[in-house]
Design a protein that fits this description.
The chain is an alpha/beta fold. It is built from 11 helices and 7 strands. It folds into 2 domains: about 10-20 and about 85-200, HAD superfamily/HAD-like (Rossmann fold); about 25-80, no CATH class.
Length: about 200
């Protein structure tokens, strides 16, 4: 590690550290049937301001469900779908190993407050990561470069010493614009590939 320029690794959550079993569309089908894709894309668009802490998402979800004729309470749907998260243990093992190796390990994710708080407490991310950068807490969402500037400030490190791992190309662009090292990866590519990416940046667990 002594020769490594990178001292911190900032990890995205969905697609990198965690997954929704069967995918979002399948999870919504019990409530809206074949309209699951349309419903989710509409509600994700409505959710965007909440990712930056502008408003409360549950009333918005309730209105969307009503619009689609769903009588199930929004809190019940939210718990069944949005909180249906499976941790990818191989990813978390890498996080833990990097932490033991002396690297700063941090979380950088777009979430509204309800899912974010679930991840912090129930999933134990506050205990796992040195610094957590949730969009609702930072007041700005990826891919805006300001997200990464604020994350680096919160970490207390020069952006050039941070490597960001994310599964969305526009977020990689935003991170690089802010001066971070950034690489595209998701868990379906395999953890050997993630290890190789880390090694390319001199990060060895």
């Amino acid at each position: 590690m002594a020769d490594s320029r990178v001292r911190h690794v900032l990890f995205d959550a969905d697609g990198v550290l965690q997954d929704l079993p069967g995918g979002w569309y399948a999870a919504m089908e019990p409530y809206v049937g074949e309209r699951a894709r349309d419903f989710l894309h509409e509600t994700w668009s409505d959710e965007l301001p909440m990712l930056a802490w502008e408003g409360d998402y549950l009333p918005v979800l309730e209105a969307s469900l009503t619009r689609y004729g769903v009588s199930t309470p929004a809190t019940e749907v939210y718990d069944a779908v949005w909180k249906n998260i499976v941790l990818i243990e191989e990813s978390l093992d890498i996080v833990r190993a990097l932490k033991r190796g002396g690297y700063g390990v941090h979380l950088g994710t777009n979430q509204e407050c309800y899912r974010g708080e679930h991840m912090r407490t129930v999933l134990g991310y506050d205990d796992l990561f040195d610094v957590s950068c949730y969009s609702y807490d930072l007041g700005v969402a990826k891919p805006d470069p300001a997200f990464f500037t604020r994350a680096a400030d919160r970490i207390g490190a020069d952006p050039s010493t941070i490597l960001f791992i994310d599964d969305t190309s526009r977020n990689i662009t935003g991170a690089r614009t802010a001066g971070l090292n950034a690489e595209l990866w998701d868990f379906t590519q395999g953890h050997d590939t993630l290890e190789a990416i880390l090694a390319e940046h001199g990060v060895i667990r």
